[in-house]
């Protein structure tokens, strides 16, 4: 899978990637919040993340606060080495669902039952 090299100006922040089929994302967000002060609060941030599809594991690299004038560069690279994410977390609901499905398959086998699964199942 391709990788992204993300920079602010000439400073490379990270090369991000996943080692299996999945998703990579670079998200640029600007938020204006109303406050009790006369001026509004402005925030601009850069988020780097991804998803390893087979295990439903979300991966994240550090977030960055941006300032006016920052130039973000995203270079698409071929497969190769990338920086380790700073965090990994699984979608617990999906993990529980897969565990239940595996358990039902095991019990069906022990009982001699045949299970018919939908073709759209992520486990088929």
SSE layout and pairings?
Elements: E1 3-8, E2 11-16, E3 22-33, E4 41-52, E5 57-60, E6 64-65, E7 72-77, E8 87-90, H1 92-111
Helical fraction:
10-25%
For the record, give the distance between the C-alpha atoms at the N and C termini, rounded to a whole number: 23 Å
C-alpha-based Rg, rounded: 21 Å
Largest sheet: 5 strands, antiparallel
Tally of domains: 2
Number of helices: 1
Shape: elongated
Strand composition percent: 35-45%
Q: What multimeric state do the chains show?
A: single chain
Task: Output mean pLDDT.
Answer: 88
Number of strands: 8
Q: What order do the SSEs take from the amino end to the carboxyl end, as H and E?
A: EEEEEEEEH
Walkthrough of the structure:
- This protein has 124 residues and is α+β, with helices and mostly antiparallel strands.
- It folds into 2 domains: 3-90, no CATH class; 91-124, no CATH class.
- Helix content is 16%, strand content 42%.
- The chain has 1 helix and 8 strands, in the order E-E-E-E-E-E-E-E-H.
- Strands 3, 4, 5, 6 and 8 form a 5-stranded antiparallel β-sheet that branches. Strands 2-1-7 form a 3-stranded antiparallel β-sheet, with no helix packed on it.
- The model has no long low-confidence stretch (mean pLDDT 88).
